[in-house]
């Protein structure tokens, strides 16, 4: 899991050096100059991780995606125009990085029976059983990549539809349709689940 302690002091030092050496631009008046990459990481790493894991379906790989996304955000910090919130910008970078990572790994053989680890918080929940979690994981991972991302951004991150559309770069009706279908598919897949 991504923790605050994972952020090294080198990131802040390097970011300050970067800010001192780059040329001022028109974009800096829109808020890019006020963004601190360490603060962005601290405030949004958990959300970035959830988006990444919803796409790549592997916790270790999702952590790599988050790290790569933070590096990309730092390198392109001066391109943030302020058209959206910093969180939306970071989640868009994270989603795109996760998709790119999956594309790179498509040639690598995978064991389709291997499911990712169940999140620790869910295991500790006394209201859910291991059987339900297994059924839920299987149903979730049967969804296509876009539907999983829409579902995670809406149900886990509680983002509004228009922000999800910006993050995923899809039309608003597509977000609503994918969310409806994803919920429906999960309901069908879990309809026969017996909690006893």
Tell me briefly what this model is.
By secondary structure, the chain is mostly helical. 65% of the residues lie in helices and 0% in strands.
Task: Tell me how many strands there are.
Answer: 0
Task: Give the amount of beta strand, in percent.
Answer: under 5%
- Give the low-pLDDT segments: 1-30, 122-128
**Radius of gyration computed on alpha carbons:** 18 Å
Give me the CATH fold name of the largest domain. Rna Polymerase Sigma Factor, Chain: A
Shape: globular
Q: In the residues, how many domains can be counted?
A: 2
Gross CATH architecture of the largest domain = Orthogonal Bundle
Structure report:
With 196 residues, the chain is mostly helical. It has two domains: 1-115, Rna Polymerase Sigma Factor, Chain: A (Orthogonal Bundle); 118-196, Winged helix-like DNA-binding domain superfamily/Winged helix DNA-binding domain (Arc Repressor Mutant, subunit A, Orthogonal Bundle), CATH 1.10.10.10. The protein contains nine helices and no strands. The longest helix is centred in the N-terminal third of the chain and has 20 residues, at 37-56. The radius of gyration is 18 Å and the shape is globular. The protein starts with 8 loop residues before the first helix and ends in a 6-residue tail after the last helix.
């Amino acid at each position: 899991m991504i923790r605050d302690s994972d952020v090294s002091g080198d990131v802040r030092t390097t970011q300050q050096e970067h800010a001192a050496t780059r040329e001022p631009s028109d974009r800096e008046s829109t808020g890019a100059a006020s963004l601190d990459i360490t603060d962005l990481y601290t405030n949004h790493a958990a959300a970035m991780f959830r988006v990444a894991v919803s796409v790549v379906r592997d916790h270790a790989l999702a952590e790599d995606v988050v790290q790569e996304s933070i590096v990309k955000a730092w390198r392109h910090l001066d391109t943030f125009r302020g058209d959206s919130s910093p969180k939306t910008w970071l989640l868009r970078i994270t989603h795109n990085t996760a998709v790119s990572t999956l594309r790179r790994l498509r040639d690598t053989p995978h064991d389709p029976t291997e499911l990712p680890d169940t999140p620790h918080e869910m295991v500790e929940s006394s209201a859910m059983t291991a059987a339900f979690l297994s059924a839920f994981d299987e149903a979730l991972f049967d969804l296509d990549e876009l539907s999983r991302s829409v579902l995670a951004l809406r149900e886990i991150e509680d983002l509004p539809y228009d922000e999800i559309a910006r993050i995923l770069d899809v039309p608003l009706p597509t977000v609503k349709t994918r969310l409806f279908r994803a919920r429906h598919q999960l309901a069908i897949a879990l309809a026969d689940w017996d909690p006893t």
